[in-house]
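look at this stuff:

>
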Amino acid sequence: MATIIDGKAIAAEIRREIAEKTKELAEKNGFVPGLAVVMVGDDPASAVYVRNKHRACAEVGFLSKGFELPAETSEEELLSLIKTLNEDSAIHGILVQLPLPRHIDEKKILLAIDPKKDVDAFHPFNVGRVLTGDYDFVPCTPAGVMELLRRSHIDVDGKNCVVVGRSNIVGKPQALLLLEANGTVTVCHSHTRDLARVCRRADILVASIGKPEFFDETYIKKGAVVIDVGINRRADGKLCGDVAFDRVFPKVSAITPVPGGVGPMTIAMLLKNTFTAAERSLQ
């Protein structure tokens, strides 16, 4: 019988652990981790994510500052705010919600964030540290996937791991983390030939392409572990992943659902990165 990996329960466990550590940090050093979340414009999905992040910060006892800027905010104004946050000793993590309006250079904004406060791990300095395996922060979604595997007692060592998707946010760092855990990693993308054949070799399949229910049972080896990173909306309005859950479930040994799988882990790992940044500020 397949195991459904409960990301909500595991994320709640991580938040409880962070709340305890935050209380200890406050008692010992007189401060709590601080996270600044900056949103430019009024994208509805981004607004939901931002609210969830503030709620999670409150739950674990973090200081949380929100900056909701109008869509017409200039690049210079945003850079000025980031400079202020970089210099604010009460703020240990800075997150700029993407996407940004088209008139703002996303790369320039990410480069402006102090790497020590880059809790999304998008700054090239932190990307390089992930590549070398010597890092403080890992991009939150791939970090969440690894934590799901670890806490579900799924060993990556020696396994054939297939990551479908090569984004800078998920696919590439996910491949690096699986490789670091001694997986044998294949990265697939839109130019991969005979994708189903490659996926059927996977002991662990990570699906992250943003296509609703694209992966059916023909892509899955019997007994595989399937991690569904996709979050999509079907024609009937219901959320679904990149994996056709009902069709794949009978073949797998373990699988993440959507919703309730990888999604809750992303915010949990953001909190973990912010706590790490706060601890590092004492050194």
In short: Residues 2 and 253 are 4 Å apart (CA to CA). Residues 7-29 form the longest helix (23 residues). The two ends are 48 Å apart (CA to CA). The chain is about 40% helix and 15% strand.
